[in-house]
Amino acid sequence: MAGTRVVVHGVLGRMGQEVLKAVCAEPGLEPFGAADGRAASDSLPLPDGSGTIPLSHSLQKIISGAQVAVDFSSAEGAVMAIRVAARSGVSVVVGTTGLSDDDLREAGDLARKHQVGIVIAPNFAIGAVLMIHLARIAGRHFDYADLIETHHEAKIDAPSGTALAIARAAEEGKGKAKGKKYLAPAADKETLPGTRGGTSDGGVSIHSARMQGRVAHHELVFGGPGQTLTIRHDSIGRESFMPGVMLAIREAVKKPGLTVGLEKILGL
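-> C-alpha cells emitted (268 positions)
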C-alpha cells in the first residue's frame, strides 16, 4: 500500500539529502518528487537504491499528485514553496529559517484558504525544542543570560533561527511582556569591536560562531549571585533533525492550519 507522497524542495542541499534519505526509510511515507534550483537532470536516484523520482528546478512542475512538500532551501525559496504547495492543495513542512512575521501571516492565510496543513519550525531536533522549553521555565529565576551558538561554515544567517527562538523563550520566562529584562553590561573598554556580541531586546547576549566540523550547537548560560545554570544542546549529525521532520509531515497531513514550532506537536 502506497504511503503519504512527499516532495522535497531544496533536495540537493545537505538537509534536503538527509530528508530524502529519511523519507525512504520511514514506514508510511513515499518519496514522490524533488525540486532544486540547481537541478541539471529530470530524475534523481533514491539514496536507498530503490529507484528514481522526478527532479525539477521548479517545484510547480512536480507538485501535482503530492500530499506534502518539505522545504529546506532559503527564506525566499520557502515562501515560494508555501505559495505553490498551498495553492495546489498540498501540505507543507518548512525547516528553513529567516521567515518574517509577514511571511508567517501569509502562510496562515494560505493554510486557512486552501485547508492545508503548514508546519514551520526553527529547529526539528527534539532536544533543541526541549531546550527552548527549559529556557522559558528557568528564565525568571536569573538576572543574566548569555547564548552561544555555533554552526557549520555555510550557515547563512546569524544568529540562527533556533538561537533567536531560545532567546525569545528566555525573555518570555523573565517577563519581557511586563518590562523585565536581563542585565547585559557593556565593557568599559572594548579592545576588539563586537567582542560582546549582539544583545536582544530583552537583554540576552548572543554570540555566533561559524566553522567547519560543526552542525548546530546552542549553549544558554543563566547567571545569578554565586551560580550559573547552563542548558546546552548539540546536533552532531543532521540525522538528529529527522525524527522531528517525520512527526511534522504526519501532523501537516492530518491537521489543516498553520503550526509554528515543533513544541506544539510535542505538546509542550
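The chain has a mean pLDDT of 95.
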